[in-house]
């Protein structure tokens, strides 16, 4: 039977052991930092924060280009001419990556594309559940894999708080006026992924640690996630004591061993230091 291979771009924040276990091909997105374009994951996230602190210029992120996708597809097919390829993509409305992958495979009939309508931990969840489906259903068709992955993506929820609003302001995602109001009133905007888009849905007031704990308690009370799919996302700068409090909240709601997903370079550029988010696949 022709083997199915998964290709995805960075920004899904997969653990190295997961990439190795399922033979997943990662094509990098990019970060423009200090005048140089560098691959996501090729340098420490903290370098982004240090660069912004010293220059007050936020690094810019860019999509994987068609050539990089084609190179990844061809590399798989050179080694496995009968391979079938499933590209599980970053939310298509937030980046050109999905479109670029489609362009790269225009003359290929053994590649399909799936818009997860999600980022970081949400997309990671779709990828891993799809990888397990393929492992458990080795005779599945590409159509069956696509239907399964899209069903998971539709049920996946993710919400997060940026660690520092200054990063959203510097990146042009909030106005100076909105930033000043939020800073003066000590407001923390909750960002949710809604149909692939990043939407501000609610504002909390208070310190990050108190807001994160309050949000998680409310979020888990109103969402019933599959126990093995629940995850929490963090960027460097989130205090260990806060992470412990959050684990206790998760345990109270029945999530005894939540997966912590550290953000990579692309996600951290937008979220800033000390960001926190949570999500999973709804039952």
What does this protein structure show overall?
With 283 residues, the chain is of the alpha/beta class. It has 2 domains: 4-154, Rossmann fold; 157-281, Hypothetical Protein Tm841, Chain: A,domain 3. The chain has 11 helices and 13 strands. It has helices at 16-22, 46-55, 66-79, 97-104, 120-136, 142-155, 165-170, 176-184, 208-222, 240-252, 265-271; strands spanning 4-9, 25-27, 30-33, 36-39, 60-62, 84-89, 111-115, 156-161, 187-194, 197-205, 231-234, 259-262, 276-281. A 6-stranded mixed beta sheet has the order 10-9-8-13-11-12. Strands 2-1-6-7 form a 4-stranded parallel beta sheet, with helices on both faces. Strands 4-3-5 form a 3-stranded antiparallel beta sheet, with helices on one face. Strand 11, helix 10 and strand 12 (259-262) form a beta-alpha-beta unit. Helix 3 (66-79) packs across helix 4 (97-104). The chain is globular, with a radius of gyration of 19 Å.
